[in-house]
DNA sequence: TTTTTATTTGCAATTTAGTTGCATTTAATT
DNA sequence: AATTAAATGCAACTAAATTGCAAATAAAAA
């Protein structure tokens, strides 16, 4: 994971710093959307709050992470680690699944958002679908 | 509008207070998603901040308002004033359109979210689609 | 109409989320 | 090894949202 993270950073011309490698690796491992608070907790305050915010923001600006729509009050982010979201062509169509029991949010790769009709004169540039329900783990 | 608001409150067994009537009327008039800050501004501090929060929350708990997914940092809410979201059968499938120029969020009534395939073992209870693009006003 | 009572409101204080400025440190280049 | 632009850590700050409690009030009962 570490090596993959370093490669991704290099591809995006971002400096390979310990924080960035750690954060990106964690996003890659964890297959779910994470908040700033999640990172702080996971890294047990070994990194500065503000630096974590800045790390997240630089990842977003560089198309490594994207915001995940959620109504929980704090922003959540995810890497989409499939073909559709590769380095040079970040895809702004995402389907996320939020489990209402464990409250994890996963990025559903392979699920495509169907076209939706919009009123005359409207143009669409991005689409985000959030599905809520119960994941397979919690359904047992 | 006021009379409609009073009727809705009564139907939900919520007390008819001036704030509630004013807030609900404003949501009904304004055809877009509103944040707490929008309300404060519109009512020009004639109501208490905290009371506005509590008003919003009680409306959500009673199915009068729903949260609108957004990544702007502050929560937004909307009433869906069409047939699909009537009093006794609140519909949790919403399509919202956010204009990236004027940043208004509208609830697209009549647009239905098509079924999306999810992995085995997953069940879906709600779906929210946020479309981003340019609205007809800003497209001129 | 007045009394009662549970709900709602307003205020102060607090918590949580996110940002800004600046001095220090460090990754990558020369 | 020296240079330099970018990244980090700290302190302070702004913004968003919540909690507790006393005072006010809507709706029901007398």
Q: Mind sketching the topology for me?
A:
The structure is a homodimer of 140-residue chains.
Chain A lengths: L1 H10 L6 H12 L4 E2 H7 L6 H13 L4 E3 L7 E3 L14 E7 L5 E3 L15 E12 L6
Parallel strand pairs in A: 4-6
Antiparallel strand pairs in A: 1-3, 2-3, 4-5
The structure holds a DNA duplex (30 and 30 nucleotides).
Short description:
The structure is a homodimer of 140-residue chains. Chain A has 140 residues and is α+β, with helices and mostly antiparallel strands.
Structure, described:
The first copy, chain A, is 30% helix and 21% strand. The first copy, chain A, has a single domain, classed as Winged helix-like DNA-binding domain superfamily/Winged helix DNA-binding domain (Arc Repressor Mutant, subunit A), CATH 1.10.10.10. Chain A is α+β, with helices and mostly antiparallel strands and 140 residues long. Strand 6 (123-134) of chain A pairs antiparallel with strand 6 of chain B. Chain A binds a DNA duplex (30 and 30 nucleotides) through helix 4.
List key phrases describing it.
homodimer; 140 residues; alpha+beta; Arc Repressor Mutant, subunit A; three-stranded mixed β-sheet; 21% strand; DNA-binding
């Amino acid at each position: 994971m570490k090596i993959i993270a370093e490669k991704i950073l290099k591809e995006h011309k971002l400096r390979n710093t310990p924080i960035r490698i750690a954060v990106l690796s964690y996003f890659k491992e964890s297959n779910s959307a994470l908040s700033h608070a999640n990172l702080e907790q996971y890294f047990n305050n070994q990194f500065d709050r503000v630096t974590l915010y800045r790390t997240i923001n630089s990842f977003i600006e560089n198309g490594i992470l994207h915001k995940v729509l959620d109504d929980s009050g704090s922003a959540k982010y995810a890497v989409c680690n499939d073909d559709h979201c590769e380095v040079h062509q970040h895809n702004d169509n995402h389907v996320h699944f939020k489990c209402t029991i464990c409250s994890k949010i996963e990025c559903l790769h392979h699920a495509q958002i169907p076209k939706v009709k919009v009123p005359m004169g409207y143009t669409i540039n991005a689409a985000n679908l959030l599905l809520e329900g119960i994941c397979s783990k919690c359904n047992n």
